[in-house]
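Q: For a teaching session next week I want to show students how multiple molecules come together into a single three-dimensional assembly. I've collected the sequence lines for a complex. Could you give me the predicted structure tokens for the whole thing so I can convert them for display?
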Amino acid sequence: MESATIWTSLIPGQPAVSIITWLVIIVVLMYLARKPAHQMILVATHSLRNALKIMATSVWKAEEKLKIRNQEVLLAHGREQVERYIEREFQRVETIINRDLSGYPTLQRDLNMQITRINEDYVHSGEVPPQPPEWLKAIETVAQIPSESSPVVSKILNDIHSTLKKAMDKNVGEYRKANKERHGLLKKMMPYWRSLNKTLESVERKISGLESRSNVIDGHMQHYENILAKSDYAERMLSSSSLTQFFISGLVLMIASVGMYVNFQLVALPMSEMVGAGSYVGSVKASDVAALFIIAIEVILGLFLMESVGVTRLFPVISALDDKKRKAIIWSTFSFLLVFATIESSLAYMRDLLAADREALSQVLSGVEVEEPEFRWIPSVGQMVMGFILPFALTFVAIPLESFIHSSRTVFGMVLAWLLRMISMGIRLVGNLLIGGGRFLVTLYDLIIFVPLRIEQMATGKKS
Amino acid sequence: MKKVSLGITLFLALLLTSCSEPKNPNTAVYMLLDTSGTYTKQIKKAQGILKYLLGILNPGDSLALARIDSASFSEKDIVAKVTFDVRPSMANSQKRAFMASIDKFAKNLKGSSYTDITGGMLQAIEYLNETGAGSRYILIFSDLKEEIKKGHIRDFPIAFDGVKVVALNVTKLRTDNVDPREYQKRMVKWTQRVESGGGTWRVINDLDRLEGLLD
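A: Of course. Below is the structure for the complete assembly, covering every listed component.
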């Protein structure tokens, strides 16, 4: 009210004139203070914008550092993975060589024996044409003698003819006999040929198995070289692989968490019988905490088991242990898991009994006659089996967990880098808006004092 | 180093001061049963409420049933009381035993000449405080028409201190039908008495909807 009185009481009795007079005074003062006012606005906005620019630059630098670090972590993890794949492939090659090709000397001996056998049979089966008797040359000579003049010659020639025929029949018989022998030998050679063929086929398979393994190793080595060279291609492939792994392992972990929830439901009620349903840890029931503890222990035992077996590599300490100690850890964790599985199975049975007791009580309270349902044993057995199997099933949670941990670093690193980029861009935007705002304020200032400015322009125009 | 240790000390102090004593999660229910006049015939409804309570109370909770008679400020009026064992199997057995004792009481129920609701409330508050439960309830199964024996003094404020009072099945008397304002006056009187003592007051007449009884 007082401020309103000040505006209207400059000229007593003339509030409108008072207001106009005040406006004129203000405009004149603003016109006189135009330059310093402009400077003040521009200096303020430029200073703020510069500060924001420095802030944006530092955020951008942080983003760059983070991207470099992300790249290092990604490539290191990718290198480790490829090294594992290559190691695994070499182990497979070693297995093939030890298992299949260690018997090569024996194989070679067998091959040599078979070839020698075949060679011998081949030599035996060689056809040796029967030699014509020497006296046939003499007959040839005699046959050239003309037979018409002498019956003796004719008789001799007939005799020679019959002798020749006999000799020929004999030779044919011998020839057939020799052929038959030869066929017999060749038939005996056939199993050796087949055996030789099989042996050579087996060698070929093994060699081609080695060949395919070596192709796979080549592929991995190529990938490894790309990673060592820190190529963009390798980085993109690893990022894409990490994202895929993140989602897949996340999905599997979600499903595993459902399994853990089911496990929890099996164990929580009987734990309240052991620990007491009335005690609390904070706002959570002690029986629930005990049930969660059992499940957590099972997951940890599963982690150690997977680590000792070599499936996962979350704890380098375990991987670095010698085989004897690792075997000891394997057996001890497996034994503990077995004990826990047995305990859970019995707890599941206790749960069933407690649930039945509660149901019976509800029936008594509602005045219904208590009835024992038929086939009551089926859900009891089912719960016991589930209680026994679930701890072992939870053992395998270690595999997607490892994947999730490794890939989440990459994914969160990428998300954080993106956030920093957005923040940097936002800060720059605000800085630019401030500059624009400053210019706007300067123009607004001039708009308010447009009358004296116009007068000044007109006066300046007249003088020139 | 000094700054680091000072920082740690401040942090620990903040942590300790921010951690307040946790509230006891158990529930204690004290049911007052009017045994005057026509209410003796409504014992079956009271049994129904008790069965519902036995169904929803958990191990560690407490339940007591007491009668409202001519002088209710006495442990002798407590018909049955139990604090359920923390083990569910034992708690179920206790519930069965409690129900059996209530059934026995119902068979031998005798009426009383006067109705000392205030005495019953005082006894209830004493019992509920002894349990130390975080949630405390007094259920009154009565028409809330108090009739004090001559010589007994009951017109003083009662400290409820967070106890929740629920009036169940508050039937209307013949005199209420003649002048309904009698009923309303009774309701207002008890509401004021309970709320001024730091308690909360509710009325539930529909015994088919007991779901929100212990809210």
